[in-house]
Amino acid sequence: MKKIFNSIFVILILAALFLTGCGSAPQSSDGALRVLTSTTFLADIAQNVAGDRVQVESLLPVGIDPHAYQASPSDVAKISESNLLIINGMEYEQFIESLLENAGGEHLVIKASTGLEPRQMEENDGETESGAGSEHEAGDPHMWLDPNLVITYVENIRDGLIEVDPGGAEIYKANADAYISQLKDLDAWIVEQVNSVPAERRLLVTNHEALGYFAERYGFEVVDTILPSFSSEASASAQEIAAAVEAVKSSGAPAIFLGEVENADLANQIAEETGVKVVNDLYLESLTDGAPAAMYIDMMKHNVMRIVDALK
Amino acid sequence: MTFLLEPLTYQFMQRGLLASVIVGVLCAVMGTYVVLRGMAFLGDAMAHAILPGVAIAYIFKGDLLIGAGVAAVVVALIIGFFSKDGAVKEDTAIGILFAAALSLGVALISTMQTYAVDLSHILFGNVLGVSPSDLWLIGGLSFAILLIVAVLFKPFLVISFDPVLAATLRLPAELLRNLMLVLLALTVVVSLQTVGVSLAAAMLVTPAATAYLLTRRLLPMMLVSALIGALSSVIGLYLSYYLNIVSGSAIVLTATLFFLLGFLWKRMKSI
Question: Which chain A residues are Cβ-neighbours of B246 within 8 angstroms?
Fold first, then answer.
C-alpha cells in the first residue's frame, strides 16, 4: 500500500516538474502588471504612485497583527505571480521572510526604505551589541511614521514601477511628484498641529519603540518605552515597570500611547499608578477598512490628532 | 488529473508537499515512541524550550537554528537525567524543563535591547515558505534519524517495553534512552523550523495515536503511522489549496479526521 502510494506521489512530483519545465510556470493570465506590497500602508503609498495604470494589492489584510498572520496558498500564489513586490525593508518583514524568499516566480523586489539611514536603538550599554554589522543588526524599521522619509519610499517605488513598466514612466513620475507634494503638505500640517502643543509637553511614552522617527522629526521627546524592545516575546521586568512609572511621574508626560493592536494591560497599570491618560487607538502598522485610517495620509492625521489632543 | 496537478505548478507547493510528507513520515515514526512512552506534549514543550538557545545564539551572533538544536539536545539530556531510574516520570521532567527553559528564554530576550522581530518566530517555519536548503536539511536529517531507528529498532523496543530483558541482555539502557530523547529533540527542532509549531506537535502525536488504535505491535504501528502522516500531509495540502485555508491547520485537521475515523472503527469493531 505504502509502496503504491509512494510511486503515485513520485509520479505526481515528476509530472509537475516536467510541466513547469515546459514553461507553464504561473503567469498572470490577463498579462496585466501585478504589484504586491507587504503591508496596507505600503499598498496605499504605491497605489498613489501607480495611479489608474496598475492595481496594487497588499499581502497582509487590513488590521491584522503581522505576527498573527498565517498565509494561505492563494496568498503565496499572489507573491509568486507578482511582477513587482514592494516591502518596507529594515527587516520589518522578517515574519514573512521565508514566504517571500521561497514563493518562486520572477519579480523585482523593492525595499521602500532603501537609501535611508536607520536610527539605532538608544541606551545600548554595549554588553550585547559587540561586533556591529551582523545580519540581524538592523535599526528601527518604523520609518513610514515620518512623512519626510516616506518621500524616499515614494521615489523607490516610482523607480521600481518604471523598471517593470517603462511605458508608464511619465505617468509614474507625475503621480510621484503629486504625491510627494501631498506628503510635504502633510508634514507642514503636522508641524502646525504640533506647534499647538507647548514645547514642555511634547513628551511621548509608548509601548514599544515605534514613534522614534516621528519624535525626532517633530521635536518630541520619547520619555520611556514600556517594552524596551520590538520583540513581542519580551516582557517587562518589575524594575522596568517601576522605571516607567518614575519616568512618567518625573517628566510630567500627560499620556501613554499604544498602537491599536497592542495589549494595553501594562500601560493601564502604569496609567493607574501615575494618573495619566492611555491612548490606545493609534494606527501604526496597518490601515483600517474605512475611517479613520483608510489611507496612509489619513492614518498619519488620525495619529497626530490623537497625540496632539492628549498632550494639549 | 488537472485537479491534482494544478497546485503543483507552483514551486512553493511542490516544496511544501515534499516537506510536509517528509516531516509527516519522520514525526509519525518518532511519534510512536512519544505515544507509547506517554510524552505527548514533547513537541509543544520543545518549541518553547529552544528559546534560551535561540537567544544565546542571537547574542553571540551565531546561527539561530544551531542554537535551537543545541538547546533542544541539552534539554533532552536533562530530561533524561531527571527521569533516570524513574526518579520522576518523563512527562513530568518535560513539564519542569520546558517551563524553566521558556522562562530563561523570555528573561534573556527581555534583557536584550534589540529590534529583532520576535526571535522565536524567526525559527518557526511555514509549510508554504520552505526553501530548497530547508528541504535538503530535513531530507538528510530524516534519513539519518530513520536509519538510526532502523538499526537500533530491537534495542529501542527492548528498553521501552522490557526493562528486565534489557538488563539481562546488558544493553546500555540509559545511553539508548538518552539517544532516543536526542533523536526526538532533533526531530522536533527540524520540523518546527520547516513546517511550524502546530504541525510539528500534531504530527508527533496524532498519526501515532491513530495507528495505536489499529495495532499494538511496534513495527506495524510505525508503518501505519507513517502512512497516515504522509496521507494527511498530501490531502491536507490539497484541501488547503482548494479551500484556501492555512496549510498547517488543514494538514493537522486532516490527521485529526483520520484519528476520528480510526476511533470510530475501533468502537464499531468492539461492539
Answer: 70-72
Inter-chain contact B129–A20, Cβ cutoff 8 Å? Answer: no
Q: Would strands A108-111 and A84-87 be described as parallel, antiparallel, or unpaired?
A: parallel
Distance CA A35, CA A159 (A): 13
For testing contact with chain B, the best of A19, A38, A233 (most B CBs within 10 A):
A233
Retrieve residue B92's grid coordinates: 513530568
Among residues A165, A195, A225, which one ends one of the domains? Answer: A195
Yes or no, beta carbons of B117 and A92 under 8 Å apart? yes
Residue A64 lies in a domain: yes
Whether A205 and A149 share a structural domain: no
Q: Give the residue on A whose Cα is nearest the Cα of B51.
A: A233
Domain that holds residue A56: 28-115+140-195
Task: With beta carbons under 8 A apart, name residues in chain B contacting A77.
Answer: 10
Chain-centre distance of CA A97, in angstroms?
14
Which of A3-7, A32-36, B233-237 is predicted with the least confidence, judged by mean pLDDT?
A3-7
CA distance A49 to A246: 46
Distance from the Cα of A198 to chain B's closest Cα (Å) equals 31
Cβ distance A128 to B59 less than 8 Å, yes or no, reads yes
Tally of structural domains, chain A: 2
Judged on CB neighbours under 10 Å (0-12, 13-18, 19+), A21 is exposed
Predicted confidence at residue A3, as pLDDT, reads: 52
Give the total residue count for chain B. 271
Task: Judge if A106 and A248 occupy the same domain.
Answer: no
List pLDDT tens digits, range A240-269. Answer: 778 888 888 888 899 999 887 777 788 888
**Is the domain of A58 the same as that of A188?**
yes
From A25, A67, A209, residue closest to B121, measured CB to CB: A67
Find chain B residues with C-beta within 8 A of A20's C-beta: 9, 11
ipTM of the complex, rounded to two decimals: 0.70
Q: What CATH number does residue A259 fall under?
A: 3.40.50.1980
pTM listed for this prediction:
0.77
Architecture per CATH, B9-262: Orthogonal Bundle (1.10)
Cross-chain residue pair B14–A17, CB shorter than 8 Å = yes
Spatial separation of the C-alpha atoms in residues B64 and A61, rounded to whole Å: 29
Give CA–CA dist A246/A273, Å, rounded. 10
Q: Are A197 and A191 in contact (CB under 8 A)?
A: no
A185 and A67 fall within a common domain = yes
- Check CB contact under 8 Å for B128 and A103: yes
Residue of B nearest to A11 (CA): B5
Say if residue A188 is in the same domain as residue A223.
no
Between the CA of residue A151 and those of A87, A115, A163, what are the distances in Å?
Answer: 15, 11, 18
